[in-house]
Design a protein that fits this description.
seven-stranded parallel β-sheet; single chain
């Protein structure tokens, strides 16, 4: 069966990495994380989570993760990423996707806050997606894409982007 991690609550269940490693790697497998905090992940891509299969993150916090490449908190491949009631903040990618880099599977964001993330030399300070991106009742603010575009959300040319009942503010791309 697919790995499922269920914590007691994001305020009480923290997985903190101290030796410059990624927290979860789920290549080709689905992964579900609920009620946890993932912090301090360091990697080339996907500081907290690297996945090649479907990913669900619910009622969780991903904060303070860093990568030298793509996807400060999450790097996803061809499968969908689902974020429900999550907080992604203070994550950094040297390249694309300060918080999330979603591949052709796209990303579904519901009742989530994505704030204060940085893509320091490329697109998508908050999110970059190569597939369908749907955002509902969420806040995307104060994210930054330096030397590029999509401070809050960058959607690649062939991808669709839908935003419903959400606030997108204070993001910058320069």
């Amino acid at each position: 069966t697919a790995p499922r991690i269920l914590g007691a609550g994001a305020a009480t269940t923290t997985i903190l990495v101290v030796n410059n490693n990624r927290i979860f790697s789920a290549s080709g497998h689905s992964l579900t994380l609920k009620k946890v905090t993932l912090a301090g992940g360091r990697a080339d891509n996907g500081g907290a989570i690297l996945t090649g299969g479907p990913l669900i993150v619910e009622d969780s916090i991903l904060s303070g993760n860093q990568v030298t490449g793509i996807g400060g908190a999450i790097f996803g491949g061809a499968s969908q990423i689902v974020l429900r009631r999550a907080q992604l903040s203070n994550n950094t990618a040297t390249n694309y996707g300060g918080a999330v880099s979603a591949g052709t599977g796209g990303v579904l964001v519901v009742d989530t806050t994505i704030s204060d993330n940085t893509a320091s030399s490329a697109d998508g300070g908050g999110i970059i997606s190569g597939g369908p991106t749907r955002i509902y009742r969420s806040v995307i603010n104060n994210n930054h894409a330096m030397n590029s575009f999509g401070g809050g959300v960058a959607s690649e040319a062939e991808a669709t982007l839908e935003i419903h009942e959400s606030t997108i503010s204070g993001n910058s791309a320069f």
